[in-house]
Amino acid sequence: MKALDTSLALTEAATEPDDEALCRAFLAGDKAAFGTLVERHRALVFALMRRYTTRPEDAADLAQQAFLRALEASRRVFSRWSPTGPTPFRAWLVRIALNLAKNHARQGLRWRRMELVEVTEAAAPDESAQEALERAERERQVRAAVLALPRRQREVLTLRVDGGLGFREIAETLGITETNAKVNFHHAVKRLREQVANTPEEGRR
């Protein structure tokens, strides 16, 4: 029975339409196709937004804005994509999300120190108040370290780590070469490691 269940799951996965098919279906009038695209990429967009916000609610709001903007531009943009070539939906969506996130950042809303009520609400059931505060401080330090990265390194790191994009997709999204994306990621990781290593011990508690 277990082997049968696995076989059925693989069959369902194999028949699931890809982004290209969903975009074409949406252009043909299938409104539900865009909803499927939203569900498929919701976690990716939220993860990107979370890097630029301190509150999950803000990240959720920004993610919703990203999908609304994508919906508004979808018919115009989809129709420009070659019917015989690949559909760069994910890279296009990530560009929209990244632009919104950077605008949010420029308004000075990112990397603020978490308020006590937020730390308390975010704590795990078996996590003490002290542990929650320490975890929040570690998260703040990581965010501050990411903020200190040069813009391009920060963008590449975010797309790679939070977005899970491959270097080719990152290159297409940011309009750079794949080699450049890899180099920026390498330097970003190196800088973060040095930053963590140079953080005073008392600052990690």
What does this structure look like?
The protein is mainly α and 205 residues long. The protein has two domains: 18-110, RNA polymerase sigma factor, region 2, helix turn helix motif (Rna Polymerase Sigma Factor, Chain: A, Orthogonal Bundle); 129-205, Winged helix-like DNA-binding domain superfamily/Winged helix DNA-binding domain (Arc Repressor Mutant, subunit A, Orthogonal Bundle), CATH 1.10.10.10. The protein contains ten helices and no strands. Residues 1-13 and 109-123 have low confidence and may be disordered.
List key phrases describing it.
single chain, Rna Polymerase Sigma Factor, Chain: A, Arc Repressor Mutant, subunit A, 0% strand
Query: In CATH terms, what is the fold-level topology of the largest domain?
Result: Rna Polymerase Sigma Factor, Chain: A
What is the global morphology? globular
What count of helical segments does DSSP give? 10
Mean pLDDT: 77
Measure the end-to-end span.
Answer: 50 Å
Strand runs, count: 0
Order of helices and strands: HHHHHHHHHH
CATH class of the largest domain: Mainly Alpha
How can the largest sheet be summarized? none
- How much helix is in the residues? over 70%
CA-atom Rg in angstroms: 20 Å
- Domain count: the total is 2
Task: Catalogue the unreliable spans.
Answer: 1-13, 109-123
What structural class results from the helix and strand content? mainly alpha
- Going by CATH, the homologous superfamily of the largest domain would be RNA polymerase sigma factor, region 2, helix turn helix motif
CATH architecture of the largest domain: Orthogonal Bundle
Percent of sequence in beta strands: under 5%
